Structures are given as C-alpha cells and as structure tokens.
Amino acid sequence: MASSARRFGRLVPIINSHVSFNPMARSVSFLVPPAEEEATAIEMIKYTKSLKIGEPAYSEAIRILESGASFLSSAKNPSSQMAFGRLELNLATVHANMSNFEAAAEHLKLILNSRSPPLLVKGAALEALAALCVQLHQDQEGMDYATAFAELWGDEYVHAVTSESLQDVKSEAIALRILAEMVNPSESLHAEVLSSADVQNISGAAVLAFAEFHHVVGNFPVAKNLYKKAITSSKQDLESSVISLSAIAMTPEAVHIGAITGLGQLLISVGDFEEAEVQLTEALKDIEKIKGEKHPHVGVILACIGHLYQQRGIARGSNEIFLVEGMYKSALDLMKASPLESDNKGRRMTDIVALTRARLGTALTAMPSRYNEVQKLKDWVDTVWNFSRPLPELVQLKQLLAGKKQEEVLKDNRGIGSFIDIRLERVFFK
C-alpha cells in the first residue's frame, strides 16, 4: 500500500489501518468493521470521480465500484447495505455516462431487489429510475416509479421521519410526478404544485422540477426564482464534502447544469438576451468540463445558444443568420443527428434534433434562395415528430413556408414555444 499511497496521494482512500483499497489492484479488500464500510465506499466513489473523462476512466471506475459492490452484495448490517447502495447508484451513473442505459437501470433495480435496502437509498433508486424512463420516452414506466416513490413513504416507513420531513418527502414525490407528466401536465398536478409551493427543505432536483413546471405553463417570474434556487441548492451540494445519494439525472452535477440551461432558455423567452448568454455560456463551460467537448450535451447547449442568437436577431431587427446557422449545425453535429435522408430511428435525442432543425428552418426562411433546403428540414421534422401534440416550432415553420409573414407568425405564436430539459434529453412545451 505504501507505493500506491505515494503514487496517488490523497486519491488513495486509506481510512485507517483496517482498510485495504488499492485502485491499481484487481480487487478491493474490505478488512473493516461494519460501521466503516460506508466510509470506505465513499472514498472509492471519490476516487472514481477524480478520474479523467473518457471510456478508459469509466471502465476503471466500473471495475473499482463493481469490486466493492460484489463484496457487499450479501451483507446484512445497515452500514454494509448503505455502502452497497451508494456503490450501485454510482455504477448506474457511470453506465449512463457511457450511454449504456440498460446497464444503468439494472444497477438501480439491484438496489430495489436487494435485502432490506435503506430507505434513502431505495428512494434515490426510484427517483433515478423514474427520470431515466422519462429520458427514454417510457413515460408510463416513469410514472409507475414516481408512484412507487410516493408509496415508499407510507405506513411501513412513516415512523422513520418527522412530520415536517414527511411533508418535504411529499413535495419530492410531487416533483417526481411532474417529470413523468411534463409532456402533458394534468389539472390535478396543477393543484398539487400550488399546494406545495411553500415547502423549503427539498432537493435541488425537486426544485428544478417545480421550476420546469412553471416554465412550461408560462409562470415565468415564479419559474425564474425556482431555477435560481435550484442552481444555488445544487451548487451547495457540489461544494459539500458529503457524497450525494443520487444517480444519473438526479445528481447535483446534472441538476446544476439543467437549472442553468433552463434559466438561460427562460431568459430568452422574456427577452433578456444578455443575461441568457451569461447563463448558457456558464452551462457550456460546465458541461465541457464534466463530460468533454464532444459530448452530445454540448450540442444541446449550442442549440440553445443558437436559439438565443436567432431570437435576439429578430428582436433587434438585425441579420445574424450565418451565426445562427453555424451554431445550429455545430449543435446537430455534436448531437450526431442523422442525415435528412434518414428517419433518425434508434438515435438519442430525436425530439431535440427535431426542435433544432425546425428552428434552423425558420431562420433560413429569411433567405428565399434556400427554400428547397427549408422544405427538406420541414419534411424531416414532420416525419420524425410522432408525438401526440404538434411541435410549436414546426407549426410556425409550416406557416412561414405557406407564405405567412414573419411578423404575423410571431404575433400569432407569442408566448408559445418549447424548451429543452438537458438532463432528461426531452423537449417540453405548453
């Protein structure tokens, strides 16, 4: 251990003389009292988080985390079960970062199927599964997991929390239902959101869900304040020495970038282009730092910045068409959009690509010489957008192609538009 400690410095977790964890070894030795197993798991997680971005680092992280989880899988004491849950949550996140969503879901389900998983760990797994299902357009399954989360805090566990904490948990459950219903929020959900507005002690992920709800229904001042609260909360979590019990879209990193990106898009809608650019630029820097410059989520934020430049140009009466086009096309490249001759089946983020191409098409209608290209963009979006409600930007593009003046289209569609949840890779609109 001495040579490994010298090589890795503080990154090598040496809790005390009872612990043996060498990141270069092919296995992890747990020679610790049960009460210290969770501390050892936390140090393993911290080490894997320190690894560089990319597949080699992800593979190394999986090796280390799986080694620890395998040892703890049959443990019965509460500390071991908590340690096992932490490792499985982080394994799910690593697999999701590699776009291996099936493996991510399996690790979360392992927690649910393990022997007496701790309440908080089970809740975190249900939250992550609900969000993952929404990301994969499995909305009903997402609602099922959201319902299971709400039921988790029933009679069996009510003794485990105070009445104040139980109220906060109910708000967390409503927030999770918001994500599952965001495509088409119900009237009952409206009432539940309003009744939970005063709850303070909820997670950044829950605050972000409330922010997005108010964003999608057009309550922009409320949404703006909630986005800021989610940014502050998630930033505090990121700066804390405590390892969060969360996975995939619910991690502080995902929430922080999601809240900044959401706020940036809201600011575009209200015409505060300068501050929108500040927020989206910050989100771009953060996502490049966390996931690398070539990650598809970088493309998502570039698409948002392209929309910013497009709307700013319209508001100012200036011609920024080439800047807008360049930004949208860079975004589409990073999102690995299929050619216009393909239908994009089986690819990630089809609805975000469709939104981006619809917005690009509306920008290019300012150039009559490119109407054939615009028509192809419209046809592609029309083909792939097979959801129950029409995409507002596609409706606007069709109106422009039909000869309607831009001023009339803008007037008729004022306050109608879409925004992107970068965490869930979904497009939402009223």
Automatic annotation (TrEMBL):
Any Pfam family hit: TPR_10
GO cellular component, one term: mitochondrion
SUPFAM superfamilies: TPR-like
Source organism per UniProt: Ceratopteris richardii
Protein name, per record: Uncharacterized protein
Domain of life: Eukaryota
InterPro entries, A to Z: TPR-like_helical_dom_sf
